[in-house]
Amino acid sequence: MNSFHVPTPGRAHWVYTHPRADSLNRHLLRAGSTALSEQYEVTVSDLYSEGFDPALSDRDLGSLAGVTGNLAELTGDSYARGEVEPEVQREQDRLAAAELLVLQFPLWWYGPPAMLKGWMDRVLQTGFAQGEVDGATGLPRRYGDGRLMGRKALVIVTAGDDPRTLGPRGVSGDLESLLFPLTHGALWYVGIEALDLHVVYDSDGLDTEGREAEAERLVQRLAGISQENARPYRRLMDGDYDPKTRALRESVHPARTDLAIHYRD
Predict the structure, then answer these.
(1) Per-residue DSSP letters for 94-158?
(2) What is the per-residue pLDDT across 138-171, written as a single tens digit (0 to 9) for each?
(3) pLDDT tens-digit map of 66-118
(4) Please, is 147 exposed, middle or buried when counting C-beta atoms within 10 Å of its C-beta (0-12, 13-18, 19+)?
(5) Which residues pair with 11 in a beta bridge?
(6) Total domain count for the chain?
(7) 198 lies in which domain range?
(8) Angle (nearest 5°) at CA 55 between 50 and 59
């Protein structure tokens, strides 16, 4: 049985993570989802207003809640049994159907809000998004080879800092590196190709004119989103990584340890 989820052409799923109805993020959501609807059939998950519970717990194990063992394996067993919580099943169905995933959130403490992290904890479940081993190599099917291959993702993030503060030498850390756990460690892990970030800097100080300008900039970006190329992360299966250590071979960018080494040349 093919355990990989084939997306439906022309479908997009937008996961929105902000609690305020009058926020800049809400304004961007309205403008962006409307614009995207001209190209895709769009589903929107408003995690805060819909009351999504981000905490992975025993209820995610179904009838296996009282069983001892590895949590990831148990969630995989519960998925195989069809014992998936309705709100998680809804998100998995929407994600499985989408060829484009949009994740929108404010940068809080230099990462996504806990609500979005919890969405990933529960939705990217073993058995649904990952958890398979390649029979020929013995390597886990991850980092470009997960069950959600064939999809691209746009990450939209608002940040209170300016581009220099969140730049390569900025005191707050490079935004690309701060979000590497999301774009590479979560999305690429399950096979979803991340597009370049869409960042709104200095978001706390925007006036009405600035909010409209940012909404229009997002609309313009979305107009050509289907033609964009994803960032070229290296695949685990392509030979750049030692199969025993799963570390980049010494012959590839020797002595370098920055995160950019995980991009193809």
Answers:
(1) HHHH-SEEEEEEE-BTTB--HHHHHHHHHHS-BTTTB--B-TTT--BS-SS-STTTT-EEEEEEE
(2) 778 899 988 999 999 999 999 999 999 999 999 9
(3) 999 999 999 999 999 999 999 999 999 999 999 999 999 999 999 999 999 99
(4) buried
(5) 41
(6) 1
(7) 11-231
(8) 95
